[in-house]
Design brief:
By secondary structure, this protein is α/β, with parallel strands linked by helices. It has a single domain, classed as Glycosidases (TIM Barrel, Alpha-Beta Barrel). The protein has 12 helices and 15 strands. The strands form 2 sheets. The chain has an 8-stranded parallel barrel, surrounded by 8 helices. A 5-stranded antiparallel beta sheet has the order 11-10-14-13-12, covered by helices on one side.
């Protein structure tokens, strides 16, 4: 064995120290420039998020500006599919990159929501197209190609996470959709990009199209968040009623908690209402509902769970409207708080009662106080 060279040891120690200093400087530089790193280091107990849509982009941003401390997760509802299934961003005059960067400097996390709306070059759209998704899921090769495009798009724009919102799928794609989510989760890990899956509500396992496709138990094993759309309890098929009563929401959550760890379940609440007239139903914003009440001097009543509603009798038809306001949303948040939920999502930012922001902020701050 050769005897060690004592004169070389100081040089080796100095080199090691220099290398360590360089590594530490690099890490500190990363944390200094990466707002997402700062967010992760100072996570509040409760998170509040909302979807920012491309058709109501500025109004959604105004909701955030109105209450800058309320929302931490901003979901850009801008991801669509081309006729061939390639993910792309909705055409808009708004600068998505600049908005993402601005939100990042404010310590907010931006997610890319991709929905299976197929948009052609002439901007004609097929909403919630199950057939394009079937083609994307059909083989290992087609799934991997789709995943590569998704990861590339999210990385290019600097999104914190990807949210997959593929709805109205065919039941035959149930297993392949779960496999796709598993493969996507694995592909995102090296890029440090989070994964959320937004799913339609259900109160039991069922073998049917739409909500029945999502295997909640399997999805929860790999996704960071399972965002359950807690709406629409009442629709054109059911007749007038709350978009989501607390009793119905609890049934959906009861089922979810049998399938997923509660910390991965993110309740997603809708702030839009609906108006039923004859056998037709249309979406109604808070502002539209308030205007109708004022114009027709309507009497607003509240269901047991505080959801406001009114009926306007006309010469040819009767209109019944259910909507959401700060009071009804507070009732839902109280229920979620009692069940131990620390995250909530809002569909969607813009055109709602801004009193809801105050209720959401109270929900979040209660968690900061450890209540």
């Amino acid at each position: 064995m050769n005897r060690p060279n004592r004169r070389a040891r100081p040089r080796a120690i100095a080199a090691s120290r220099a290398l360590l200093a360089a590594v530490l400087a690099s890490l500190l530089g990363t944390f200094a420039t990466n707002s997402y790193g700062q967010v992760a280091a100072h996570q509040p107990t409760r998170w509040v998020g909302g979807w920012l849509t491309y058709w109501q982009f500025e109004q959604g941003l105004e909701s955030i500006r109105h209450s800058p401390d309320t929302f931490q997760d901003i979901y850009f509802f801008i991801g669509q599919l081309s006729p061939s299934g390639d993910p792309m961003l909705a055409a808009s005059k708004h600068d998505y990159r600049a908005t993402i960067q601005q939100l990042k400097t404010q310590g907010k996390r931006s997610w890319l929501t991709v929905v299976n709306d197929v948009v052609s070059p002439d901007q004609k759209a097929i909403l919630k197209d199950p057939y394009v998704v079937s083609r994307l899921l059909a083989s290992h090769q087609s799934r991997q190609q789709h995943i590569t495009h998704l990861v590339s798009l999210a990385s290019e724009y600097g999104f914190y996470g990807i949210d997959i919102d593929y709805e109205s799928l065919r039941h035959r794609d149930r297993s392949r959709f779960s496999l796709f989510i598993e493969e996507l989760a694995q592909a995102l890990q090296p890029h440090n990009i989070r994964l959320a899956v937004t799913v339609q509500p259900k109160v039991r396992d069922q073998r049917r199209h739409g909500a029945g496709v999502n295997d909640w138990q399997r999805l929860c094993r790999v996704a960071d968040r399972l965002q359950i759309m807690l709406y629409n309890e009442h629709s054109g098929k059911t007749g007038p009623g709350p978009i989501a009563s607390t009793a119905w929401i609890e049934k959906v959550l009861d089922h979810a908690e049998q399938k997923c760890p509660a910390e991965k379940i993110v309740p997603s609440l809708k702030v839009l209402g609906a108006t039923w007239e004859q056998h037709k139903v249309r979406g109604t914003t808070y502002q539209q509902a308030v205007t109708l009440v004022r114009q027709h001097n309507a009497t607003v009543e509240r269901a047991r769970d505080q959801v406001p509603h009114f009926t306007i009798a006309g010469p040819n038809a009767t209109r019944t409207t259910y909507y959401e306001d700060g009071r009804s949303m507070a009732n839902k948040l109280t229920m979620l708080q009692a069940r131990g939920y620390n995250q909530v999502m809002l569909w969607r930012l813009g055109s709602y009662d801004l009193e809801i922001n105050r209720r959401l902020q109270a929900f979040r701050k209660a968690g900061l106080r450890g209540e």
